[in-house]
Amino acid sequence: MKNSYQIVIVGGGTGGIMTAAQLLRKDKSLNIAIIEPSEIHWYQPAWTLVGAGAFNYEKTKRPMASVMPKGVTWIKDMVTSLEPENNSLTTEKNGSIGYEYLVLSPGLVYDLDSIEGLRDSIGKGSVCSNYINPNHTWDLIRNFKGGNAVFTQPVTAIKCGGAPQKIAYLAADYFKKNKVNAEVVFATPGSVIFGVKEFAKTLMQVVFRYGIHFKPHYAPVKIDAENKLVYFKSVHPEDNQCVINEGNVLNERFEGESEIVLPFDLLHLAPPQMAPDFIRKSTLANATGWLDVHIGTLQQSKYPNIFGLGDAAGLPTSKTGAAIRKQAPVVAANVFSMVKNNVLDKAVYDGYSSCPLVTGYGKMVLAEFKYDNIRDSDPILSKIVDTTQESWLMWILKKYGLPYLYWNKMMKGKM
Fold first, then answer.
1. Is 126 helix (H, G, I), strand (E, B) or coil?
2. 58 exposed, middle or buried (CB, 10 Å; 0-12, 13-18, 19+)?
3. How far apart are CA 184 and CA 219, in angstroms?
4. Catalytic residue status for 355
């Protein structure tokens, strides 16, 4: 095949760049191509802070060319389909591209049509999302005059699962500091504030401190932006009936057995998310449409020369940059071992992920965990600070330390 490479990496995000950089550190002679259409590489973890006016949006982006590892072939194109039985894929402009080994790290896409009214309302008026436009979020928060400020998330998996509640805490802190009469609501389809109990205990204390209305089992299904109403389906109606009262402080009402209608003056939500079409429509997807890979080796279940990582991977852990930081070395080691010896390396991913839970201006809880929601806090860091508690040092890490490590270490394959 004319356009053929030893290793093809799909995606120039965190996973793709890290994997390529680490492979080249092992052997500069590897023939690697990265398929990525975007000219800009974003540091999205800082968008929570951007949405609260605590970080400059322009500093979250850099030219893709500046992070592309030296020695790779950058194919500025989009993948349209995968043909793993032929060791090839098809792109929009360059046609068919062949590979010996394929690494899939394409990220995810937003499904703006699965919530009625979302596509027409998100990022406009009183509806905002840090996932779409964090500057708009900040505009709404700083100009908020009072009323219901509702923060919610969908039933789908999302990148950075803690992001919808982080901006709720920051908004609540801002309103409190500026004496804005706000009723802050955090509504989630989940049953708990956080899946790891050691951190959930602290987060519930944060919820109580701000007087946030915590609404479990709330799944958003419709947005009526014109009338400023958000509709939820109760995941467990029997649990919600007892807390819905006509004429309460939120003017919330219950319609039928499971529909809840909540007025809002500000609505922030994470959009529903899914793997890209070329993943979902391929033979590589699992039953829920995510890339089917082994949870430890990250090798695709049907094709041993294909590996996957990042947000598109169907792994039972949170989709975060911290997770990718632990996944990329495993993929790089296994691909390199397959190239050299046709066997897997001993490297295994244990499900590690991390959620820097900003709980206010100058406060953060660093939630680290692995598969089965088992706490996995760094032993060295834990000697300095109790990461289950709010900490100013962790805020400094979030605002200054992590961006530095991202651009100067992770993107260069050094960690």
1. coil
2. exposed
3. 17
4. yes
d(CA 365, CA 374): 16
The model carries a pTM of 0.94
Same domain? For 232 and 145 the reply is: yes
Both structure tokens of 79: 């993948």
pLDDT digits (tens, 9 = 90+) for 390-403: 999 999 999 999 99
Q: Which residue among 335, 355, 366, 367 is the active-site one?
A: 355
Composition of the chain by helix, strand, coil, percent to 5? 30, 30, 40
Residue 128 annotated in active site:
no
Same-domain pairing of 216 and 301: no
CB-based contacts of 238, cutoff 8 Å, min separation 6:
none
Among 30, 34, 115, 160, the one annotated catalytic: 160
Whether 239 has a pLDDT exceeding 70, the answer reads no
By CB neighbour count within 10 A (0-12 exposed, 13-18 middle, 19+ buried), where does 262 fall? Answer: buried
Same domain, 81 and 218: no
Burial class of residue 249 (count of CB atoms within 10 Å of its CB; 0-12, 13-18, 19+):
exposed
The answer to whether the beta carbons of residues 121 and 229 sit under 8 Å apart is no
Residue 35 lies in a domain: yes
